[in-house]
Amino acid sequence: PEVRRRFARGSVDRFEVCSPVPVWPVEMVCLGHDNARLGAGWFVDKVVVRCDSLSSESGEREIVFVCGRWFSLDMDDGRTERELHPTASPLASVVMVIVVRSGR
User: For residue 33, is pLDDT > 60?
Assistant: First the structure.
């Protein structure tokens, strides 16, 4: 089997976490890296936390944490760690500016 490098450009990485105590709903995700290698910066679009053990009748099974930022000493604000908080909807915190220029 092919070994895939985690956090590669354009990839989606999945992790399974088991806890002996209830942690749902997740209220915050702390994400970061140690900047140990050359080119260690990440761009994180969003983090999706899903609880497959919940029934669909018991409420939301997925929480979205929108980020849209770099985790890099050289990019954005230079931070390599961030606390992400849930977004009610992936579009709830997105501000869009649309500029239309017509030809003369």
Answer: yes
Please give the share of the chain, as a percent, with pLDDT higher than 70.
Answer: 73
pLDDT at 69: 92
Residue with tokens 């606390």: 83
DSSP secondary structure, 32-80, as one string:
E----STT--EEEEEEEEE-TTS-GGGS--EEEEEEEEEE-SSSTTS-S
> Do 75 and 37 form a contact (C-beta atoms < 8 A)?
no
Residue whose token pair is 């989606």 = 12
Q: Which backbone phi and psi does 49 adopt, to 5 degrees?
A: -110, 125
Higher pLDDT, 57 or 50: 50
How far apart, in whole angstroms, are the C-alpha atoms of residue 101 and residue 14?
42
Q: Is 20 exposed, middle or buried (0-12, 13-18, 19+ CB in 10 A)?
A: exposed
- Looking at residue 20, its pLDDT comes to 83
Number of Cβ atoms within 10 Å of the Cβ of 3: 4
